[in-house]
Recover the amino acids of this structure.
């Protein structure tokens, strides 16, 4: 008899966030669930890993509608959570690793800053099908529609698998489920942040800076993640961790690389 | 009269690291230099940015052979350094942003964990030519050959520019300059880390874990970054921050995406 699928769940908003509670609840019945997530919020940590300090894993009470599931809160980053889970905490190799639901979009350049995406990326490096889910409302809100979408997409990946090394970055628009227009397969939009650090004085009259900025979409393509969610679609972007810019290889080959000149 | 090029220098090993001192010295005479680097070591922070706390920038004494250069130590990540420098610290838009020299390789999957690479990536997002330099000896050592290579490559990029959004990830083998076989244009090797967390007890008999692992190259290609440095070549990999796995778009389009079923 085939074992039930094992689904490992993580996030970057922390184990007590509404988004991960909704994600785990949405998976209820699809397989065995184990939650390994950061003890504290870890937004914008990118693919950070903890090398110079120890990490700890604390068993954590975590309920889905059908009952209690195994869960650990980890004193580390999302990537740490997946690495530690795979080495020490899971009872067997997971069939699927999912991350989220993030309290805000992870489209365009935001992907590279995202701890939510990094947890899923870490799983894909280890050869496990993985999905990052984000709800496109800053600060979160009602995850009901996002949970239903996540369940639908998780079922498809459990059935169809993914090419090793490729994961799905899913962004769900801020709409009631019945108003979502469907799923669009997209690419990452080109974009940047225009920084404007707040410059202030502390109570001791010393200057400090606080990061803020404006998101600038540089991409008018109708097949991008940004376009999809702005137009009411769920965006599904296949991503990977091969950063090679293949298009640039040929022209660079033509440069003069004689460094002994 | 055209202004001298402005070269912004950062790293992840911290402003006092031997690698960034060597890199700045190697640029001496190529243009005006400004150093904006982390106050403390920030290895393996990936593309983390600091959003929930302020950051500070402290003027820092920093010498290259021809004299003193402007420098700031920042209480943040490499990506923070570049963002803050661009918004508040540089006198004009830099012509080149370079990061390193990293004390250890940034080949294969290590790219995604690397703070050194993230500083250069941040610049490329902002449309500035950027290069990350790494010396392929863990913990660093004699940066003389790496500095000479860095100068050669920086001169070429100052002259030829780079396609916007593309940066160079350069790995320099641990060899005397005269023994380096040349430059190879490469792609990122497929690889992973096989984690084995050390599991220990603290003085209060509580369990903690400490990340360690073994690097596993999964890629026998002779055009990879790993192959190049193992065979005595400088590896130059064009990379970008578009994580879209274009090869997967078509097959995903063929799935049944009717989520209302």
């Amino acid at each position: 008899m085939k074992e039930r699928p094992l689904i490992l769940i993580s996030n970057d908003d922390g184990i007590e966030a509404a988004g991960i509670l909704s994600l785990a609840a949405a998976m209820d019945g699809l397989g065995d669930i184990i939650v390994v997530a950061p003890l504290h919020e870890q937004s914008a940590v990118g693919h950070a890993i903890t090398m110079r300090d120890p990490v700890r894993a604390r068993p954590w009470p975590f309920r889905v509608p059908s009952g209690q599931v195994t869960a650990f809160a980890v004193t580390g980053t999302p990537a740490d959570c997946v690495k530690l889970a795979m080495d020490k905490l899971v009872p067997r190799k997971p069939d699927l690793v999912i991350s989220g639901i993030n309290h805000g979009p992870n489209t365009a350049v935001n992907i590279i800053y995202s701890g939510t995406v990094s947890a899923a990326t870490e799983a894909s490096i280890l050869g496990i099908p993985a999905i990052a889910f984000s709800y496109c409302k800053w600060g979160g809100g009602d995850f009901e529609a996002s949970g239903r979408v996540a369940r639908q997409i998780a079922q498809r990946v459990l059935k169809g698998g993914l090419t090793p090394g490729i994961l799905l970055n899913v962004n769900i628009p801020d709409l009631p489920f019945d108003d979502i227009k469907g799923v669009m397969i997209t690419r990452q939009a080109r974009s940047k942040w225009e920084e404007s650090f707040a410059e202030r004085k502390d109570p001791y009259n010393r200057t400090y800076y606080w990061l803020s900025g404006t998101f600038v979409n540089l991409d008018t393509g109708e097949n991008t993640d940004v376009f999809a969610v702005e137009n009411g679609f769920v965006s599904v972007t296949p991503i990977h961790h091969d950063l090679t810019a293949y298009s640039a290889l040929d022209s660079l080959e033509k440069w003069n690389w004689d460094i002994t000149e």
